[in-house]
Write a structure and sequence with these properties.
Layout (H helix, E strand, L loop, with lengths): L4 H12 L5 E8 L2 E6 L2 H6 L4 E3 L6 E3 L15 H11 L3 E4 L2 H16 L4 E4 L11 H8 L8 E4 L9 H23 L4 H4 L1 E3 L19 H43 L1
Parallel strand pairs: 1-5, 5-6, 6-7, 7-8
Antiparallel strand pairs: 1-2, 3-4
Helix pairs in contact: 1-3, 4-5, 5-6, 6-8
Length: about 260
Amino acid sequence: MELPAEIRNIIYGYTLTDPMGINLAATFEHKRRTTKRIPSKLQKTMSGLYYRNADSGEVLQEEEPVPLTPSLLAVSKQIYREAIDILYGHEFTFFDSFALYAFMINLGATGAKHVKKIKLGGWLDGRGTRGYNHCCFAALMSATNLTSFHIETSRAGYSSTVSTADQLYRDAFPWLESMAAAKGKMDAGVDVLKFGDAFFGRSWSCLPLMQPLSKEENVDLFKNELRKLLGAQQQIVMGNALVKKKKKKAGKSTDAEE
């Protein structure tokens, strides 16, 4: 603590950052669902730890992630305040929705508020695992300071942009509505969504035999559908609240007359 702030920041950089980002896959440890950091190239290719040199054909092993020392944050309240946003300034890239769920459920509500950027690599569609596509967003409800939620690939089995937006809404509404409540803006969660090139990779269109839409047109269509669904739910909630208010007022009037 006697070091100048500039030197402390250099130390935080050495101990709390990885230039390749933080890439996570789900695992089990001590009978708990949790995550493990994996090499960035493995995260990108999802094909294994070994790769061939393009020039020589030699098989190369991906380097392990740079070790981090998050326990440094527990040294003092001042170090925590100074360094917490350096650690959480990374983009957290998750192999699939199970990895996102396992990370957030262990991180807790306080830590979730510091997460700024998330990238989701893929979804789960097995009978016993597809539920994590919804659970990961329920676990994400406290992450209301996200500035970017990047989804790389779309769900399989949906033939149009609108139907895929409907499915994402069914999975993600807990987080989308939590963002709306925290920011005071109905579509705050929609605003931070980003999509990889593979998300609209099947040249979807909203009607049969229609000219395939560009990625920009698909993004607009997708986000507008989400906004429509969120708006409809907001109207239902407001309508129910108004009915309850009228019933309560009518009950008070009856009591006064008696």
